């Protein structure tokens, strides 16, 4: 497991400082430039919420599947069982977390275009991790490792992170620095990995919108592809797929 550093965030002070900074910058900024503070708040709003004391499901079969998946997410430890009263967020910094190219073709078992139709979050079996799970309706498959993942199929994809709501009502966001969550209703080009063909995990993704391609995650790694048209992105992807298959 990669080593990670946890940082507690006192939300009020951070937002107050950022707000003053961006207010000054806004005096000399045109209206078409996106507000960084608003963008950050929007990114965080996409993280689903898990109950720390999550009740069992009424359906025994579904409950067993969820518990088994919870066991497979015990390998990352970020959730505090008793967070300080002032803590609103915990950020894990993972060394070399994005050690892949902007189009991680070789690193992905699955590459698909899909629309996110639902989102939920769960704590791991040992309650030391929280992970978010998204239902994705696939419209196009570029690469797949199993015959069940095809155009028109539906899959569940996951990523570590999410809000955790405690029995006392306190809600804390746990996330990994630079890694964000997809939004329900949006279309994405997903790069996915799998754990022993059991769970599909988001390596990274690009949202496909009318204003051009936008990277899901935050890194200089993706800057060269930001703002491309879908056609230009798919052309680069197909070139990478051909190059990857030639080895």
Keywords:
OB fold (Dihydrolipoamide Acetyltransferase, E2P); 247 residues; 5-stranded mixed beta sheet; alpha+beta; 5-stranded mixed β-barrel; 11 strands
Describe the 3D structure.
The protein has 247 residues and is an alpha+beta fold. The chain has one domain: OB fold (Dihydrolipoamide Acetyltransferase, E2P) (Beta Barrel), CATH 2.40.50.120. The chain has four helices and eleven strands; from the N terminus they run E-H-H-E-H-E-E-E-E-E-E-E-E-E-H. Strands 1-3-8-7-2 form a five-stranded mixed sheet, with no helix packed on it. Strands 4-5-6-10-9 form a five-stranded mixed barrel. It is globular and about 50 Å long. The two termini are 29 Å apart. 23% of the residues are buried. About 8% of the residues have low confidence.
Can you give me a brief rundown of this structure?
The protein is built from four helices and eleven strands. It has helices at 11-26, 36-45, 60-72, 230-245, and strands spanning 4-9, 49-51, 89-94, 110-123, 130-143, 154-160, 162-165, 171-176, 187-195, 199-209, 212-215.
